[in-house]
Amino acid sequence: MKKLICAKDVEHLIEEGKKEIIVEAGAIITPSAKDMAASNRMEFVTKDTKVIEEKEKSISADMIYQVLKTLSEQGMLKGIFDTISTPYEVEKDESGLKLIRGESVKYDYFDTGDSGVKAYFQELVSKEDSKMSAGFLMIEESSFDWELTYEEIDYVIEGTLCITINGKKYTAHKGDVLFVPAGSKVVWESPDKAKIFYATYPANWADLIA
Fold first, then answer.
1. What is the pTM of this model?
2. What is the CA radius of gyration of the chain?
3. In sequence order, which residues have a C-beta less than 8 Å from that of residue 69 and are 6 or more positions away?
4. Fewest beta carbons less than 10 Å away: which of 11, 56, 100, 187?
């Protein structure tokens, strides 16, 4: 005899917090049960389908595990996960040396507190690596106020970088170097697109920003 699924059955499952209604193949589902399930975004799944889905998930997970295990044992996964999680290509030595491929660097948005500012950066040497930090900064046709609670050296790779300090504006071009002492209140600006390599001391400069 085929099982009858009525609205009351669906109501019980809703109270239990279920999202699927597992039914036997050929079960009779009343219109009111279908309406109640639809209004609560529940799905009817046959037992046979559910068993197949669970088997497929189990097989897939097991197969993936075995493949990864084999690759790991053969040393074929070495460095892959570091590359995935790092926004640039890097070679590391056990001494602590890092070789970063500059052309591979992907930039994050640099939050200046003004959403209209087009500034982007990527830290390449962090407080986990050194007592100093270093990275790339890009400012594109924007300006913003900034207070440094750390020392900073900037090398202009391309474009024009302007800095205003104590009411006086200084302009740096490609190949120029800037040193900005701790405690400085400045305005950073670029009338075009400036790309800068920066180094700061101490390395935890982001933690020191009020």
1. 0.60
2. 29
3. none
4. 56
Question: If you write DSSP's letter for every residue of the chain in order, what string do you get?
Answer: -PPEE-HHHHHHHHHTT-SEEEE-TT-EE-HHHHHHHHHTT-EEEEHHHHHHHHHHHHHHHHHHHHHHHHHHHTTTTTTHHHHHHSSS-EEE-TTS-EEE-GGG---EE---S-TT--EEEEEEE-TTT-SSEEEEEEEEEEEEEEE-SSEEEEEEEES-EEEEETTEEEEE-TT-EEEE-TT-EEEEEEEEEEEEEEEEESTTHHHH--
Residue with structure tokens 């085929």? 2
For residue 72, what are the contacts with CB-CB under 8 A and spacing of at least 6?
none
In this structure, CATH architecture of domain 102-208: Sandwich (2.60)
Domain ranges in the chain are 4-70, 102-208
